[in-house]
């Protein structure tokens, strides 16, 4: 079992509503992202995470997102293994997200 904490969609929506200082990273592929992303989310496909790590601040808080939560959990574990302590995974991924989408 993973040691990565999960955040549910309602909790993430509350963080967005309160302008909590967190960065959402969507690790889905381009064609998936074209169907909509959570507002403020950065798109970094899962395969690009290893090269993108050097551009991320390990002291910031991140919420990782994919379609169902599995790929984003892998990305979360990768970040944690590279010194990122404040990483959460969106429980259920975009399949569980009922909030606003941007295209």
From TrEMBL:
Q: Which organism is it from?
A: Halobacillus shinanisalinarum
Name the chain's protein: Rhodanese-like domain-containing protein
UniProt-listed Pfam families: Rhodanese
Q: Domain Rhodanese spans what residues?
A: 18-103
**Superkingdom of this protein's organism:** Bacteria
UniProt xrefs under PANTHER family = FAD-DEPENDENT OXIDOREDUCTASE, SULFURTRANSFERASE YTWF-RELATED
């Amino acid at each position: 079992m993973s040691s990565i904490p999960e955040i549910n969609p309602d909790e993430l929506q509350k963080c967005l509503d309160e302008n909590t200082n967190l960065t959402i990273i969507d690790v889905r592929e381009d064609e998936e992202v074209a169907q909509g992303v959570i507002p403020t989310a950065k798109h970094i496909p899962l395969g690009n995470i290893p090269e993108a790590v050097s551009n991320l601040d390990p002291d910031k808080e991140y919420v990782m997102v994919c379609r169902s939560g599995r790929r984003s959990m892998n990305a979360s574990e990768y970040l944690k293994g590279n010194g990122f302590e404040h990483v959460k995974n969106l429980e259920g991924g975009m399949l569980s997200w009922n909030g606003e989408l941007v295209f």
